[in-house]
């Protein structure tokens, strides 16, 4: 798959280093946009349910998906489902369609045998590995036929319900900090934040 150099540079600048998993996510995100016949979003016209977990190998995948699709934590349309997979469902709420794409692992051994991955396995940070070694494994991801690297499910109708945006806010009566309304707790007669309340159960659950 040919990806413009400018887009790869944007990814590496955003992610902070060159690695195969972020490029894998970028490629998967671009395929999802193609299959949905849509474009990168600057709003919430797309939602991404991404299945990566916390701090596991190749979680860099998520940054590639963000750069490709425009879905992000800040816009509230990138939602982690914490399944420990390099996979996501991209949802187009204008046309009410969705597609799920997952890394199939067929190139796992080939990737693991690269100099880059051997150094990563030895605990060497990616920023300390030469660019040419990073590009070796990145090119494996870029050049692989789609069916050798992804499970690409058919586009289908979606029943996803976008979370409603709540714009209301208030000031915590104890610490004086700004708090979004769903995260306010009632402590006696005071409206307080989670930190000042000392308990977490509440409206947003």
Describe this structure in words.
The chain is of the alpha+beta class and 205 residues long. The protein folds into 2 domains: 5-155, 60s Ribosomal Protein L30, Chain: A (2-Layer Sandwich); 166-205, Wheat Germ Agglutinin (Isolectin 2), domain 1. Helix content is 32%, strand content 19%. The protein contains 7 helices and 10 strands. Strands 1, 2, 3, 4, 5 and 6 form a 6-stranded mixed β-sheet that branches. A two-stranded antiparallel ribbon has the order 7-8. Strand 9 and strand 10 (190-192) form a beta hairpin. Helix 2 packs parallel to helix 3 (61-69) and helix 2 packs parallel to helix 6. It is globular and about 60 Å long. The chain starts with a helix and ends in an 8-residue tail after the last helix.
Within the CATH hierarchy, at the fold level, what is the topology of the largest domain? 60s Ribosomal Protein L30, Chain: A
* Low-confidence runs of at least 5 consecutive residues: none
- CATH C-level of the largest domain: Alpha Beta
Biggest beta sheet summary: 6 strands, mixed
Please report the number of helical segments: 7
Give the helix level as a range of percent: 25-40%
> What is the number of E strands?
10
- For the termini, the CA-CA separation is 42 Å
Please tell me what the overall shape is.
globular
**Overall number of domains:** 2
- Computed structural class: alpha+beta
Report the mean per-residue pLDDT as an integer. 93
Give the DSSP E fraction (strand runs of 2 or more residues).
15-25%
What pattern of helices and strands is seen along the backbone? HHEHEEEHHHEEEEEEH
